[in-house]
Write a structure and sequence with these properties.
heterodimer, A: alpha/beta, eight-stranded mixed sheet, five-stranded antiparallel sheet, 14 helices, about 20% strand, globular, disordered N terminus, disordered C terminus, B: alpha/beta, five-stranded mixed sheet, two-stranded parallel ribbon, 5 helices, nucleus (chain B)
Chain lengths: ~500, ~270
């Protein structure tokens, strides 16, 4: 670790770096709902059934809370002191409270009228409390719960926070789990640790999680080291990666290489000619470079503009990320002065892409990567069996799979292949709690739905022969009762060498 | 902060957590750790040197509940693993940043115990051939850890995110300072085995002005991979089925442990200066 990694060029320190700036990638937060957007003046943003402009957040610190006022403007909201000490009139239990639906004297129309008048959410909640016949009979706990519920509905408080792996992974899991193969955030956290992701590493990643895993790795590595992303189809999808708002300097260590050329690379038949640009590539250049341009990825799910659909439960409607209209770097196609310029620009980019691919191929061919991360919708076994060859011995690898079964097979195949130790198939369960005086209890237990991990370490193949008692392919299952004897045998070998 | 999982692998009072954090924040971050037990603090210092990570960590010997962390307004994150975290909440607030300056992650830890189940592997150097196997649970010891970015203006004016839990970069991302760095929000995390401790800590956090309180528990489950073949029952028809007296074998991932134990609760909070 000492002195490891390349250093991005020294930058002057900017005071006030905690302030929101025009063009920043931020995340809007309301209660536990998140949405990633880019700050752009005069651009309408919808979030949680409200629309507004982000102009007013510019200059404020991250973490500032705003209220949506009439006309779609955001006003900073001061942290109110909770009036906790007031003794409220409250009942002891609910035996006399009848739920007839008539305890609230304000009608829907009344409330709407209040809203239209521009009355603040706080005020509306107050009105509701005053007009509730049963409020003072409720127990204190019930009153708290009631107030919380009304506040949630009528107080439109939005916080602007800086994107981070934590926030984005929570957001994606809640809103678009399909895009990330249902990888829950704690599972992602495990991956980063088991994979020993850190500055200075040379990592190989193959993911189809919208670039979330890639982003998490980049964040951890901080621009130090390098990452080679292998991608299926025409180009890597990096919608989530863009949400992080990484500086451009991070891109210098980021490479990509087409998955369908991996075999040739491993067999030594790869050559530069194989990288002639396919028609699909040009359409995906912007995506490759991490912008949120709306482009149809040929084999990927539709990553384009996801607007927020209020109460809709359709995954394809729900949108997590606001479209970024344009990445400053790629104004070419939109501003074409002439068709010729456009074509030249396109060719230039294709040439650059080709160069990058060649550089990536060279890096891969060294077969000395510091780790491998796989998290995709594809069956993990063939990926592992091939990609591990690019990894140096004594390095970690982690494979994520939404399902356990493919990892069972992967485990077995890896045992046959040899060159790996400390194989571990795991899962994490996540349980959250409500902690309140006299009211503490667990809320939800999330298990089984967060995916599984197979991790291990590579070792030099010479010292450890593949376990010859394991026959390959289909016969594996028939030839054994259990795997235990094989593992023990391996351990003996290890201690001898 | 997120999903802790990685938090803690036990280990020794020297702090697997410390090592994990150092691994994460190097080369531009810094860790401050507080240990009130003289001997353990010394041992920790030795180990950091031995593992060649000494320059990213400072070990202080003091009682964090009484005297705090020894740094103020510099930390991006604080982690506590001590018996009475509510007593350290105020100090944690003071230690956390108000403005973004060199990134700091402050992590305070006390006993280790809980970490046990989280199997973290630390590889201090790529040159090491042997990976560290997940350490075994050890008795409690007190280690408090913190991390702080480079105080001086060196060529690497960077900040380092401190993903204490592997997910949260914590305010202060990376190198490029042209990028507004991770905001002002400092993150707090406390690990406690007992719910009563959690309750008191939450109360103290709320009273002190922390927001986004969240308590959770991460339970790892490890599976054995087994090939299993179940015998077919004899229903009287006499002849064996096509597969013989047993069914075709199948692969199964069976839990390694019958029951998943509890180690502790993780309580997170954010400091957003009002």
């Amino acid at each position: 670790m000492e002195g490891s990694g390349e250093q991005p060029g020294p930058q002057p320190q900017h005071p006030g770096d905690h302030r929101i700036r025009d063009g920043d990638f931020v995340v809007l937060k309301r209660e536990d709902v998140f949405k990633a957007v880019q700050v752009q003046r005069r651009k309408k943003v919808t979030f949680e059934k409200q629309w507004f402009y982000l102009d007013n957040v510019i200059g404020h610190s991250y973490g500032t809370t705003f209220e949506v006022t009439s006309g779609g403007s955001l006003q900073p909201k001061k942290k109110r002191e909770e009036p906790t000490a007031e003794t409220k009139e409250a009942g002891t239990d609910n035996r006399n409270i009848v739920d007839d639906g008539k305890s609230q004297k304000l009608t829907q129309d009344d409330i709407k009228a209040l809203k239209d008048k521009g009355i603040k959410g706080e005020e509306i909640v107050q009105q509701l409390i005053e007009n509730s016949t049963t409020f003072r009979d409720k127990t204190e706990f019930a009153q708290d719960k009631y107030i919380k519920k009304k506040k949630k509905k009528y107080e439109a408080i939005i916080t602007v926070v800086k994107p981070s792996t934590r926030i984005l992974s929570i957001m994606y899991y809640a809103r678009e789990p399909g895009k990330i193969n249902h990888m829950r955030y704690d599972t992602l956290a495990q991956m980063l640790t088991l994979g020993n992701i850190r500055a200075g590493n040379k990592m190989i990643v193959m993911e189809t999680c919208a670039g979330l895993v890639l982003g998490a790795m980049m964040e951890r590595m901080g621009g130090f080291g390098s990452i080679i992303q292998l991608y299926p189809g025409g180009g890597p999808v990096r919608a989530a990666t863009a949400c992080f708002g990484f500086p451009k300097s991070f891109l210098s260590g980021l490479y990509e290489f087409p998955l369908n050329k991996v075999d040739s690379l491993l067999q030594g038949t790869f050559s530069a000619e194989m990288l002639s640009s396919e028609p699909k590539d040009s359409a995906l250049i912007e995506e490759r470079n991490g912008t949120l341009e709306e482009k149809q990825a040929s084999e990927q799910e539709n990553e384009d503009s996801m607007a927020e659909a209020p109460e809709s439960n359709h995954p394809e409607d729900q949108e997590t990320v606001e479209t970024i209209s344009q990445d400053p770097e790629h104004t070419g196609p939109k501003e074409r002065g002439s068709k010729k310029d456009y074509i030249q620009e396109k060719q230039r980019r294709q040439e650059e892409q080709r160069k990058r691919h060649l550089e990536a191929a060279a890096l891969l061919s060294e077969r000395n990567a510091d780790g491998l991360i796989v998290a995709s919708r594809f069956h993990p076994t063939p990926l592992l069996l091939s990609l591990l060859d690019f990894v140096a011995p004594s390095r970690p690898f982690v494979v994520y799979c939404q399902y356990k079964e493919p990892l069972l097979e992967c485990y077995t195949k890896l045992r046959e292949r040899g060159g790996v130790i400390n194989l571990r198939l795991s899962e994490t369960w996540l349980r959250n709690y409500q902690v309140l005086p006299d009211r503490s209890h667990p809320k939800l237990l999330m298990s089984g739905g967060g995916g599984y991990l197979l991790s291990g370490f590579t070792v030099a193949m010479d010292n450890l022969k593949a376990d010859t008692s394991l026959k390959s392919n289909a016969s594996t299952l028939e030839s054994h009762e259990t795997e235990e004897p094989a593992t023990k045998k391996r351990k003996c070998l290890e201690s001898d060498s | 902060m997120p999903r802790p999982s990685h938090l803690v692998p036990t280990g020794t009072g020297s702090g697997s957590v410390s090592h994990a954090i150092i691994r994460t924040i190097a080369p531009t971050g810094h860790l401050h750790t507080v240990e009130f037990h003289q001997q353990r603090a010394e041992k920790a210092r030795e180990e950091f040197q031995e593992h060649r990570v000494g320059r990213w960590v400072t070990v202080r010997t003091q009682d964090v509940c009484r005297s705090g962390f020894g740094v103020s307004h510099v930390a991006d994150a604080v982690f506590l693993d001590i018996p009475s975290p509510w007593e350290a909440v105020g100090h944690a607030w003071d230690a956390l940043k108000v403005e973004v300056k060199p990134v700091a992650a402050l992590v305070g830890g006390g006993r280790k115990g809980g970490a046990a189940t989280l199997g973290l592997r630390f590889d201090p150097s790529p040159r090491l051939l042997q990976p560290q196997p997940p350490p075994h649970p050890t008795p409690h010891c007190g280690v408090v850890i913190a991390a702080l970015g480079p105080a001086s203006c060196g060529p690497m004016e960077g900040r380092r995110a401190v993903p204490v839990h592997g997910l949260d970069p914590v305010p202060g991302t990376w190198e490029d300072l042209a990028q507004p760095s991770q905001g002002v929000s400092g993150r707090f995390c406390s690990f406690s085995p007992c719910i009563e401790q959690v309750q008191r800590t939450c109360q103290a956090l709320a009273a002190r002005g922390f927001s986004e309180l969240s308590t959770l528990e991460v339970l790892p489950q490890v599976y054995n991979v087994r090939t299993v073949s179940l015998p077919l029952p004899d229903l009287g028809s006499g002849t064996d089925g096509p597969a013989g007296p047993d069914t075709s074998p199948f692969r199964s991932g069976t839990p390694m442990k019958e029951a998943v134990g509890h180690t502790g609760y993780l309580t997170f909070a954010t400091k957003i200066p009002g």
